[in-house]
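Incident log entry.

Two folding requests arrived from the same account within the same minute. Monitoring flagged them as a possible duplicate submission, but the sequences differ. Recording both here for audit purposes.

Request one:
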Amino acid sequence: MTGSSLVSRNITLNGHRTSLRLERAIWEAVEEICTREATTVHELCTRIDGTRTERTLTAGVRVFVLQYFRAAATEQGHAAAGHGLRR
C-alpha cells in the first residue's frame, strides 16, 4: 500500500488555524458526531482541546470519538438506538 492513510484538514480553534491529521474513519466519525450534536468540526475540536488530558489534540480527538461511541454502546444507549437488549 502506498501513501498515508492519514487525512489532513485545517481547523480553527478559538480563532487560531491549525491542522489535524487523522484516519479517514476518524474524520467520518467526527462528522457524524457533529451532525448528531448540531455543531461544527471547529466547535467540537475547540471543545475537545479545552477538556482533553491527552498530550496532543490529535490523540484527544481519537479518544473523544472512542468515548462518544462507547457511551452509545451501553445497555441504555443500545436500547435508545432501538436495538433492544443485548444477549
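Request two (distinct sequence, not a duplicate):
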Amino acid sequence: MTQTVARDTLPEHLWALEQSLLDPKTRADSDSVAELLADDFVEFGSSGRIWSRAMTVSQLAGEQADASVQRLVSNRDVRLLSEDVALVTYALSRQSPQLADVRTLRSSVWTRVQGKWRMTFHQGTVVSSISE
C-alpha cells in the first residue's frame, strides 16, 4: 500500500513513524516493527552491537514494558536528503528509578520503498551530556 504524504507534512509524518518505534505497544508487536523496518535494515546500537532487522524485531518483542521508565526526546530534526530519503535525528534521555539514566544521540535514515517509508538505518550513541 502506497503512503501519500504531502511534502510539507512529510517531516511530521516521519517523526510520527520514528516516535512509534519508541512506543512500548509498537515495540511489543513484531508485525508493527517489521512493517516499519526495511528488509535491509541495520542498527549500530548504543551498546556497540550491530543489529539486523530480524534481530531487532525479535529483541523488541521480548522487551518487558516498564511504566517507571521515562523516555524524554529533545533536539529532534527531520531533514530530507532527497525525495525518497530522509534523516531523523534527536536526543533521547531514558530515566528510571531502578537504572542509571542514559542519554543517547539518535539518527535514523528513512527511505521510501515501494511508496512506503521504512527505516533502513538507525544509530544510538551514548553521551555523557547533551547540549540543548
